[in-house]
Amino acid sequence: MDFKSENFVKMFTDMMSEGFIVIDKEGKIQVYNRKAKEIFGISNISQIKHQSGRLRAGDIVIIGDNSIGQDDGNLTGQSLKVIGIKNTNIEEGDSIIAIGTYKRAGDFEPILKLLKKGHNEEVLEVETTIKGVYIKAKIEFVNKIISIQVDNKEYKMTYINAIGHMVVLDGKTMEMKFYQTYGYTARGESINDLLKGREYMAKGAGTESLDVIGKDIFEIHKSDYMIQQFYNVARGENVTYVDKFEEINGYPTMCTLLPVEENGKRIGAALKVEDISQIKKIIAERDQAIRELEEAEYKLLNEKALNKAFPKFIGNSQQIENVKRMALRASKTNSNILILGESGTGKSILAKAIHENSKYRDKPFVHVNCGAIPETLLESELFGYEKGAFTGARSEGKKGLFELADGGTIFLDEIGEIPLSLQVKLLEAIQEKSFYRVGGTERITVNIRIISATNKNLEKEMQRGRFREDLYYRINVFPIWIPPLRERRQDIISLVDFLLPKICNELGCHTKRISAEAMNLLLTYDWPGNIRELENVLERAVNLAEGNNILSKHINIAGRASQDSSREIKDLKSYLEEQEKKAIAYALSYFKGDKKKVMEALNISKTTLYDKLKKYNIK
Question: Is the pTM of this model over 0.90?
């Protein structure tokens, strides 16, 4: 097969959403699609332009390197002498910020800030002014960002393990003439290469991109384990795999490696690559969003504001107050939200309340129960379909739920139930806010806020291979955990006060009261079904109670009969201790942990109360 004669290959491979590389048996690149160039940073997609050229004597060089010698073209302390840095204490793995004049004594003393390998610092920073130009270089070791600011322009690079970042200013005009960006290994533009006088390419829209076709794979990618294995398979080694995690030149990827054969003979190898480096970026975005919102917390998060914002989300425990605070913060952002909690904790109510407190409040709120829609219909329900897309489809086609939510919020309830086969398309729709209808060829773009919810442990689902890691991090930008009812028993009283009149009104009867004994049963039950189960128990009790009072005999909860029978065989002392423990626990819950009020209500001394707390292990 003659790779070069297949002119249609480039057109089709550039349409792929994954990176795709093919090499022949000599290791020469025959296919390198657009997505692969984006992943490995060798596309000219940057909007900041500069011309091609090389460093000249007198240029100002600014370097930020978190690990000398690791991903900077084998930079050493000796290499830095060309910018006036003569420190002999620089070793491999050290972190540096260096500013100097290229091959000439400049108008300022060269600047070096150094942290030895293995340090525990969070930030390394230099701030100075040279020839009237403000310069700030900073390495953030926690967020893994290296930024170089020149006046009001900032050049940032994120890294996973190590990276070398450099900006060069023209020595005469003090204008930026070069800045480092991703893909410098492929272009031969590492710090050490340029300090040795190598020419660099132009950057920015409209400039010529690097042509890799026909080049040796090792020219474009340094010889790490994955690239060597790719080459070995092209040469005849029998290795294949699908969706395996591998790092290529420091980029975390999911790889599929396949041999290419013709007439039973090996002629090359193909590598499909999915970029998962966005996971780290998403986590950093979430953390940054939370930090920024905390600064405005004192203006928004007081009890009055929370109750006004969430009138239907009942509870005054500390746990629920925290949930409301997080939800109010989340409503003021555009970040994706993941609501976690057991069934019946109120995830749907909270999602609707977040929408109603957001800028999307006057737009659609579309609730999708992912677990209730059959797997065969889920894709067409979410994304719609074109006419004739499948047997039984409407002749005019149909809009999907994503389209119906355009301008507002889509709530993906029980997202953990979505099958793996649909998770890739869902990830793209969430990430790009665009998708194709089933059977369609036109990409549809929507402007929506995405809230997801699940009662599953998605981290365990990922470990079991049932949920994609990249989808998890994309939806989990702003997580909110709703604790189960058994962990916030004091909210039961507030919930009963809210639910009982509502139930009586719906059943068309006078409002009924609940007795102390009946309330005690509710307070001591674990509520595996949470608020939904509580509401069902109260509705049943209202129907059973003939008068205006709900008694303990009207409370029908799981396990009560066995508890009653077990009481019959206990001795009097055990029975009294059990009731005493419940009375103390109830009083603590009622008075929100105020022990002084508990002592007054139960008419016991401080010593007695603390003895009982210790005896019954009440916290």
Answer: no
